[in-house]
Design a protein that fits this description.
This protein has 262 residues and is an alpha+beta fold. Helices cover 24% and strands 28% of the residues. It binds hexanedioic acid and magnesium ion.
């Protein structure tokens, strides 16, 4: 499909400028209503290449729309993926500046640390577990570049699936030491419980979600690499936060992770 307005490069610049200037922008499908899913992933790919040209490094992959509830809400039956860059990693011990966001939300996820390259189109949960060195508690901060956090699936894919920052807790465990399907989670804001859930919400098992991502990447000859971090998808709904807030997520036997905003 020919774009109604702007080239793919112009759309990339539009989204990257919004991210750099911390500005909400109109969603790209308003001017390009026929944009396809394939084109959206192509725009995402160009956006990541542009970030690399600006000196950033890919450090992994993230999944979105991994819960049946969220897929139904968006009228889709598939998850989506984006990339994690090195400047997205924030730490528990350093407050994250609120000024680095537009309208952020936090969501609990399980992080996978990949220890061997893996690629293919029929990769299973078991394959993922065999190449995962550790799993760890994590929080993803999503920050859509679109007005009021409202978009279609195509818009959000082009926008690297709302990726912004993520924090990984300091308790890393071997995946075989846990039942990854049954990790109970609660997320609190300023010590008040905000959401609760269980890891089964992520396609039945977060390892299945990671397998889905590898198979999807495999369709275009890509995969995961040794050293990659994968955020496997949100376990509960995302919650908004403001400057001065502290978010903590407790992942039962997998430990906890928190961050504060300044
Ligand atoms: O990581 C996520 O689950 C976000 C995927 C995109 C949808 C959203 O921004 O809510
Ligand atoms: Mg997420």
């Amino acid at each position: 499909m020919k774009l109604m307005q702007g080239t793919e490069e112009e759309i990339v610049k539009y989204l990257l400028d919004a991210e750099k200037e911390k500005r909400e922008v109109e969603k790209i499908t308003t001017k390009n209503p026929d944009l396809t899913f394939e084109q959206a992933y192509k725009i995402q790919q160009k956006l990541i290449e542009q970030k690399e040209q600006e000196g950033l490094r890919r450090i992994g992959v993230k999944l979105g729309l991994t819960s049946k509830a969220k897929q139904e809400m968006m009228g889709v039956h598939e998850a989506i993926y984006g990339y994690l860059m090195d400047d997205m990693l924030a730490t528990e011990w350093e407050p994250v500046p609120y000024s680095s966001f537009i309208h952020p939300k936090a969501e609990p996820e399980i992080a996978f640390f990949i220890d061997e390259d893996i690629k293919g189109t029929s990769v299973t949960e078991e394959d993922i577990l065999s190449v995962t060195k550790y799993v760890a508690p994590a929080i993803e901060i999503i920050d859509s570049r679109y007005l009021d956090f409202k978009f279609t699936l195509v818009d959000v894919v082009a926008d690297n699936c709302s990726s912004s920052k993520f924090i990984v807790g300091n308790k890393w465990k071997y995946p075989e030491s846990l039942n990854l399907k049954e990790i109970g989670v609660y997320m609190s804001k300023n010590s008040e419980v905000a959401t609760v859930g269980t890891s089964a919400a992520v396609l039945g098992n977060p390892a299945a979600a990671v397998a889905w991502a590898v198979n999807k990447l495999g369709e275009t000859g890509r995969g995961l690499k040794k050293g990659d971090i994968v955020l496997s998808g949100a376990i509960t709904e995302a919650i908004s936060f403001q400057a001065e807030d502290t978010i903590l997520v407790d992942f039962a036997e997998l430990g906890s992770v928190s961050f504060s905003c300044k």
